[in-house]
Amino acid sequence: MPDTAHATAPTITAAEMEARIVRYGDLQPCKTAFIDAHTPGSNQKENFTIIGGGVSESADQHVHITIPHGFNIGAAGQPPKCRNSLHSHRTAEVFFVLSGRWRFFWGRWGNAGEVVLEEGDIINIPTGIFRGFENIGTDYGMIMAVLGGDDAGGGVIWAPQVIEDAADHGLVLGENGKLYDSKKGQSLPEGVKPMPVLTEEQLKDYPEPTAADVIPRHVARYWDMVAMAGKKPALVIGETGMLPDRPGFEVGFVTRDSATEEMHQHDVPSVLMPMRGHWKVRWPSGEATLAPGDTMSVPENLPHSAVPSMTGHASLFHVVSTADPAGPTWKG
């Protein structure tokens, strides 16, 4: 994964780098991000857009870092029994569980297959299938997300029943990708039609893979990644990764034993996302400490290293874009 080719290294101060760090405690949620924001069972979820424009349908969504990375970083926070409605994306959607216990399910009606993920587990959900997720833990939970492409595939494709249920609770999605809330006195502007509901013929293009189809190739368990990392960082998602795929980015996994003080660099921006423990990130002109839930954007061509700064178990996810197109990844 590291690109060791030497290019002119940028000079960046600790203050400038801090502007590229989104602290967990500074995350700004949006509770009106999607069409199911009023639908019972989904109306308590919070959406976070950390890097890139994301796929929010609401003008209320705050974007922390707008620098293009070739992918988007986001998060979803939900109390127990809250779910995210069935939807699909045209590009990759990867989640790792930062906290809580989560059930991911998929298919036209959400009953084709499912898997339960614990803290640290990661799932690379195949594109082109309807998927949803819910917090089945006992406390507020958070999942971190990586979406393929700078524009994240142009938005969300909702299962027909989600659009129909939302209309019953005052929310309409325009064909322009924007939400209109009748509870706020809003209506579709003149000339803007509602987002069309997929026809039965169009729905035939959405596969219904079973759990046996999805889990082996698309789910990695936390302690399996820890074992794989060993003395060398593990490639979790990538052409030769634990979950072989080319979604437009690679996801690596680093532990205390596989971390090194030796600096490396990439010719594109990369992202560091601690899962466990505190991490000291160093570059030629400064250093910063990251905690679980923090997200750090490292500039292209900047030599840097990341090592745990305290004793105890430590792990970190590392994301970097590749030259692969951020297109469909499901291979049925």
UniProtKB/TrEMBL annotation:
<dbReference type="InterPro" id="IPR014710">
    <property type="entry name" value="RmlC-like_jellyroll"/>
</dbReference>
<dbReference type="Pfam" id="PF07883">
    <property type="entry name" value="Cupin_2"/>
</dbReference>
<feature type="domain" description="Cupin type-2">
    <location>
        <begin position="80"/>
        <end position="143"/>
    </location>
</feature>
<dbReference type="InterPro" id="IPR013096">
    <property type="entry name" value="Cupin_2"/>
</dbReference>
<protein>
    <submittedName>
        <fullName>Cupin domain protein</fullName>
    </submittedName>
</protein>
<dbReference type="InterPro" id="IPR011051">
    <property type="entry name" value="RmlC_Cupin_sf"/>
</dbReference>
